[in-house]
Amino acid sequence: MFKEIFLFEIKYRLKRPATWAYFGILLVFGLIISISGDVPASEKTFVNSPVSIARMLSIISIFGIMLASAIMGVPVYRDIEHKTKNYYFSYPISEKGYILGRFLGSMSILFLITLGFHIGLIIGFEIGPYAGFTEAERFTSLNLWHYIQPTLVLCWTNFFFAGCIFFALVSLTKKVMLAYAGGAILFIIYLITLTLTQDIENKDLVSLLDPFALGTYSNIIRYWTPVEQNALTIPISGLLFWNRLLWVGIGLLAFLFTLFKFDFITFVNDNYKSKKRDKNLDESNPSAALTKVPKVTQVFSGKLSLNLLFSLAFMEFKNIIRDNFFKAILIAAVAFLLFDAFYGFPVYGTPSLPLTYYMLEVKDFNFVILIFVLIVFMTGEVLHRERTVNYNQIFGALPLSNRLVYASKFLALVMVSFVLVNMVLVSGVLTQIAKGYFNFEFDMYFIDLYLIEFPKYITFILLAFFVHSVVTKKFMGHVIAIAIWALLFALNSFVDVNNNLYLYGYAPRYVLSDMNGFGHFGTALFWFRTYWLACGFVLLVIGYMFWKRGTDSGRKARWQIAKERLNIKTVGTFSLLFIVFIASGAFINYNTKTVNKYRTVKQGILGQAEYEKQLNKYDQIAQPKVIDVKVNADLFPEKRSAKIKATYLMVNKSTEVIDSLHLLWGAEGLLKKEINTFTIDGEKPILGKRYDDFGYEIYAFDQPLKPNDTVKMILEVTGSYKGFPNEGMGSDIVYNGTFLNNDFFPSFGYNTGGELTSDKDRKKHDLPVKDYQLPDQNDVWGLSNLLFNNDADYVTFEGTVSTAPDQIAIMPGYLQKAWEENGRKYYTYKMEGELDFFYNISSANYNVHKEVWNGNSGETVNIEIFHHPSHTYNLDRFTKSVKHSLDYFSESYGPYQYRQMRILEFPRYASFAQSFPNTVPYSESFGWVGDFSDPEDIDYAYMVTAHEVAHQWWGHQITPSSTRGSNQISESMAEYSSLMVMKKEYGIDAMQKFLKRELDRYLRGRANESKFEKTLLDNDTQAYVWYQKGGLILYGLQDLIGERNLNNGFKAYMHAAKFREKAPFTTTTEWYDYIKSVTPDSMQYYLEDSFEKITLYSNKAIEATYKKLENDTYEVTIHVESKKEFFDGNGTQLGSSEQPNLLDIGIFENDGKNENGMTSKSPLMIKKEWIKSGKSKYTFITKKLPIKAGIDPYNKMIDLIPDDNLITISPAEE
Amino acid sequence: MGLQISNLNKTYSNGVQALKNVSLDIPSGMFGLLGPNGAGKSSLMRTLATLQQADSGTVTLGDIDVLNNKEQVRKILGYLPQEFGVYPKISSYNMLNHIASLKGVSNKAERKDLVESLLNKTNLWQFRNKSLGTYSGGMKQRFGIAQALIGDPKLIIVDEPTAGLDPAERVRFHNLLSEIGENTIVILSTHIVEDISNLCNNMAIICLGEVVAKGNPIVLTEGIKGRIWKKTIEKAELNNYQEEFQVISTYLKSGKTVIHVLSDNQPEASFQASTANLEDVYFSEITTRMNTVSA
Lengths: 1214, 295
Known about the structure:
The complex is a heterodimer.
Chain A: H1 2-15, H2 17-36, H3 50-63, H4 65-72, H5 74-81, H6 85-88, H7 95-131, H8 145-173, H9 177-196, H10 203-209, H11 214-221, H12 226-231, H13 238-261, H14 264-268, H15 302-322, H16 324-343, H17 356-361, H18 367-388, H19 392-396, H20 402-434, H21 442-470, H22 474-494, H23 522-546, H24 555-565, H25 568-595, H26 601-615, E1 625-636, E2 641-651, E3 658-664, E4 671-680, E5 686-691, E6 696-705, E7 710-721, E8 738-741, E9 747-748, H27 759-764, H28 780-783, E10 792-803, E11 808-810, E12 814-821, E13 824-830, E14 835-836, E15 840-844, E16 847-854, E17 860-867, H29 875-892, E18 900-906, E19 919-923, H30 940-950, H31 966-986, H32 992-1007, H33 1023-1041, H34 1043-1057, H35 1068-1077, H36 1084-1092, E20 1094-1097, E21 1100-1108, E22 1114-1122, E23 1124-1127, E24 1133-1137, E25 1141-1148, E26 1152-1153, E27 1159-1160, E28 1163-1171, E29 1174-1182, E30 1188-1191, E31 1206-1208, E32 1210-1211
Parallel strand pairs in A: 1-10, 17-18, 18-19, 21-32
Antiparallel strand pairs in A: 1-2, 2-7, 3-6, 3-9, 4-7, 5-6, 8-15, 10-13, 10-14, 11-15, 12-13, 16-17, 20-23, 21-22, 22-29, 23-24, 25-28, 25-30, 26-27, 30-31
Chain B: E1 3-11, E2 17-26, E3 29-34, H1 41-48, E4 56-61, E5 64-65, H2 70-75, E6 77-80, H3 92-102, H4 108-121, H5 137-149, E7 155-159, H6 167-178, E8 185-190, H7 193-199, E9 202-207, E10 210-215, H8 217-222, E11 228-233, H9 238-244, E12 247-253, E13 256-262, E14 272-273, H10 278-290
Parallel strand pairs in B: 3-8, 3-9, 6-7, 7-8
Antiparallel strand pairs in B: 1-2, 1-4, 4-5, 9-10, 11-13, 11-14, 12-13
């Protein structure tokens, strides 16, 4: 009997077109992504590497929730839907046979359908190499195990688990809607685990709880290099095993519960609890039929229609908000808002204050996904309301005009979306209250939600409304509407279609800022919203013509109806809307394309390739170098324009005669530049040649410049913005928070920075693969130029800047004079001594916080913090860090070169901090509004400030040459310096957290490398090497050879190389020599491993036991294992080392807290030992009860698995 | 005011021709539309109720062009569909009130009187505050007629209103229908002959989309007077009789098969004359066309 039901189910399903439709969709989807090779994998891995296949199978199983609910929700529900339950169970079948048969039959079909995707991939990856979308060498040969293993571990287990849940829900509740709601809930759990993954501390929790194990999978492969990704399948052990057991177990339990709980009687019988019928009251009253019905007046006026419109809309609105599905999704959506608002904005894992713009931005996280779904589903409900309850015939025959009914339904949805936008307001304010933040900026809420977000939701409705009007089958309508959105999203995210003019509902991104409010984004938003609303209303009118009233759904009848409805009013409305649509589109196109030169991603890449092909011949040509800069800047923030005059004194420092000046303005950007004055030695130079596309101009000197000749160039440029772009912040000059740098002016000669870097793109455009961006350490050109700018070595600087009366303008140097004139403010700055050629011009409405640092040798430094008036939260953290940094660096590396240190805030259109000579601009979202109340959270304001202050030495005193590895001299040194300042502040025992963070970022960085990993001496592009590896290696080095010893080496290097007057400038060779000179012979192996090679440890504590001795001491025995391996840049293992390494062995009590309240290790004993490769055993005596022990417990070494270094000590068995 | 239907045609997209050249003159009063399942009754009713398009033909109600001036028709229309649902969680009072306002009864006091009298008339007063979802089939049907009566409609269309009702409910429903004013056109479709003979002065029989007979039921019955013959036969003999005579219906009586035959003369001596009734008219019209004998 089970067999019969099982086979019937399979046969039934195999004949259903839906089964093959799903199968076909997955097949086609698999084919598309595999043939195009457009898979989520880094450039160095095969597109069909085992890791990539596993990832795709895992992702598809998440989107497959919908599939699972569609397949597993119905097998039992079918008997309710078709009313077959009334007799089906009268047959001699058992409940268990029925349930098992239906369940296993459907599950088999579900698995079968998923195979469509596999088959698509397998076929596609065979075609891929010949299709030419992705290079043929990125396809590897077919290995079936690479499909089978992840299918069993990830894909099918997910389907099984989800399928069990849906099956159980529907079988036990008889409500098919629950299958969809269940799907939503699963998706929500998944999204929550995604939010949790933002914090590395939650890694294990996520690995266990992610119901689809995608997070688990990502955590397993996070450090896998391309070589490993190409060869290995994920091991089913540890957390992955437990995760699978947990979720499959939950699924199985749900199914077993159903199997034993299910019985036909409850299933067949309707629930009468809520329906009490008072039969006896239904007495006939024969005279009743004679009751006279009074005459009434019927009015059909326009005013009444309007009343009816609102009352119908309101009634529909109430219907929607009473809908349980609506409530469930809305609650989930609001839960997301609250959740995201609460955890949503960590920087370095540290939360941010609940500022209003953060509260507003969460609407675009998970909320908007649910809003999409909700709008599509509710639109379907509204348009099918009467049909669903079979009231459509009565309703359709009522004397209500088509327009009235149609409009009332639309209006009801508009009301719903108004409720939806207000949810953001409510959750925002609640979150702010919960976090004790009471600065409610309701104006910001209202403008953003009512004027920007609300119209967007209306455009969503318009599309859904159109689809559901034209498509009369509700489910089909849902599928089509969601497919349209998915298509738009896919086009935008995967196919690089990013012209907002062609993506329904899209508009340029905008950013809210405390400093600059809504800034200049309003115009573009207004036009895009108008454009898409007009488009949506055009669709609404088309939908109106085909909207089904009555019962006739034949094509002919609907055309007839459409023709009937196509009267003068409809045509008029349509034409009007269409004109608005086309006109606003044309206006937008003029702004984005004609004025602001919109280019597709492809055109952008092509432009870069052409730039290199046409101009590369000018690479490294001799150009004069700037030695003195005078700037006269007039900023007009209210007009978003600036007129800046630069006077450059330039010298020919080369040995050649220079006959022409090459100016590189760059391709026309958003900031339009107009040259007012351009003279060289008082003469207007003559343009020789101009490459329009790249803004490259060549001017011949009147008299060629002989070596050591000096000329004076005056260049006055007006920069301003015109119209609005398709995307882009245009944030150089804004109403409040202008942040310009020397890029305002052209640079000299060809700049390799504009070239394509990706191997893939370069090959595609017939450019040779470029392994290094910079020449090697012995290259003459490289040695004669500085890293950050080869237009000058060190320069002198002074200038005057004027701005709006309510703003303060800042340039490098010391303020000489400030005055007001003609209603504008003027500031004159002059730098003492020299600086590298890197200056900024900023202006904003600032408050200034001032403190003074006093050095040991009597020097004083004025600390000035220019901040947004309300951002006073963390000023003390910035100043404390500046002071501690100045303490440590002036002592360790030599004196600070200036008498002031300024930190200034700029709007959050970018989110970085950057060190200019004596000035560090910080983005508004970076530190100023961090919530550092929990001492366990990383105080990144302190950490990053120390890094940026260190650049005053490493970068601005020693500015390295333009050769390979030079970035290490600025960035690794700054990162090391920052770690040292923290070590001094927090204590050595609290440092593990920071070191482990660095280690994690380094290991992930190398795993995602798209070229090959470079060494510390050679690296010229890889941030994870120069920040994370560099910081760690230098920290480890000071630990091995002594902090003071190493710093003395750096001090000597600083003394030798700072402000070097002429070439050759310093390189990593020189830097490394100083490091070697202070490192004893026994430790030279560490330098070689770390600086010249790529070396990774696998240190592990295997076992630790203690024995209490008679004198109240404890004898601790530790078994450790150590391994040191060398790798090439691609991650291929080159060999391992047998020689012993000096590593920490430590024994600890429970963790304690340091003075700052941070968790800190409490060592009972920590000792450096020469530990041999392989296993070793150590025995120590401690005075207190030991808790944990291990090898390299602070993660000072680069260790592939940093988590297994410490182990809990157990008492030894006697 | 009368309803004129002329040459109405409708073919569905699946190829089924639901209405073939239907022409009818329907005067005020009760008009019965009789036909087997799938005859096109509901198609005709829905077309009259503005819910469906016709391919060709005209329908006029007084001076209103029904097919092209739907909004005018809807203002004077009361419609009770064959199958209809209700919002299960709304009470009949509120629902009637709502529909009344949609039908343009904007004066609140009037509306209240109207709804209350309709509830009384349909014997639903006691249940006015109960949600419609709890109503039995008969109650729901009475609610249906109540809503159709709102706004003093000139044209009332009731589509198979008594299907599935028990005998008592049917009587009650007939009483309600018979009380509807004489100046109103009431079109009642049914496949139950008795409904028509009880209620209607005029009727049409419709079969396979065509009007096959129309007129006063009594006149129609007159037409076959003396031509109906019956005989009790063995079940096995039925085929023989069908080949030989025009058997219009068969039924069982005390376990034996009785056949009715349409014939101008007594077919055989064993046949007895039978009093012709409307049912015989109906069967004589449809049996030949549908090539089946209703058993």
